[in-house]
Design a protein that fits this description.
With 298 residues, this protein is an alpha/beta fold. The model has no long low-confidence stretch (mean pLDDT 95). The protein contains nine helices and seven strands. Helix content is 36%, strand content 16%.
């Protein structure tokens, strides 16, 4: 069997704040393959994440197949809403969760990674935020809508733009999306569906531009519903998981590691001719046109 070997490769996973989400699962699969893992954690939760890590709260989740614990070579503070230091408003700078933390904008993190590790090989964008996600689109404010696009889609463009010069030729960049980009999902509001649609469009454009400019690949995984801590902020994730189980071609609950394994393929040499792709990892729910558990079908 062909084994994916990422020894000597350095991967930056942006968007890990606990051990429950897709970012963690992807990092773990890359670590299993031998990659050196760098992490970008949202600045306001940086302290508690590092404390939880040091206290061993994630040790069970960190355990690799050989019995060792997944290690992070470095954890960077990251607020992907800002591209450079001058973009940060004064009230954010003076916020107690930011005040004593420096270098958390995208350009600063990219420069620091290059300074610490030279050129790297893999970038994972596992970032999304919509401050008004619980509001229907018709009730979403302009500021809430733009904030969703800024944090969830433009952050990917900015990461590619700033890290692109520091990626080795043949490197791979990947983001995470959701099928609300192309189908109406009531409850997934606040402009988040628009942000995911923009993100998928950007994947295709960046695949061309970054491919020609730096010889790197750009892809996305459209993942199914997962009951992570971040997803629970949406408010209806448990119902979406039940809906997927009832209606998807594969009647099982999606596991984060299934997305992790698919990501490992996408960033590895096994997918060397794959770029600009949206890979669905959702038990096939994206293929369904009707809900088979609908009362109208009984």
């Amino acid at each position: 069997m062909y084994k994916i070997d990422l020894k000597g490769k350095v991967a930056f996973v942006a968007g890990i704040g606990d051990d429950q989400g897709f970012g963690w699962a992807i990092a773990k699969m890359l670590a299993e393959a031998g990659a050196t893992i760098l992490v970008g954690t949202w600045t306001p939760i940086l302290k508690i994440f590092i404390q939880s890590l040091d206290m061993g709260k994630f040790d069970i989740s960190r355990k690799l197949s050989d019995g060792s614990l997944m290690q992070f070579a470095k954890i960077y503070p990251l607020d992907a809403s800002f591209d450079k230091e001058s973009d940060v408003p004064e009230e954010i700078r003076e916020n107690k969760r930011y005040k004593n933390v420096g270098g958390y904008t995208i350009s600063e993190v990219a420069e620091q990674i290059h300074k610490d590790f030279g050129n790297i090989d893999i970038v994972i964008h596992s970032l999304a935020n919509g401050p008004e996600v619980k509001k229907p689109l018709l009730e979403t404010s302009r500021s809430g809508y733009l904030a969703a696009l800024s944090a969830s889609s433009y952050s990917f463009v900015s990461l590619v733009a700033h890290l692109g010069p520091f990626l080795n030729p043949g490197s791979s960049v990947m983001t995470l999306t959701y099928m609300a980009s192309e189908k109406a999902v009531p409850g997934y509001g606040g402009g988040m569906s628009s942000a995911k649609a923009a993100l998928e469009s950007d994947v295709r454009t960046l695949a061309f531009e970054a491919g020609r400019k730096w010889n790197i690949r750009v892809n996305a995984i459209s993942a199914g519903a997962l009951g992570s801590r971040a997803a629970r902020a949406i408010g209806f994730i448990d119902k979406m998981i039940e809906y997927g189980y009832a209606n998807a071609p594969l009647q099982k609950t999606l596991q984060a590691e299934e997305v992790g394994r698919s990501a490992l393929f996408l960033v590895s040499p096994m997918s060397s001719a794959v770029t600009g792709a949206i890979l669905y990892v959702d038990n096939g729910i994206n293929a369904m046109g009707v809900a088979i558990d609908s009362p109208t079908l009984t």
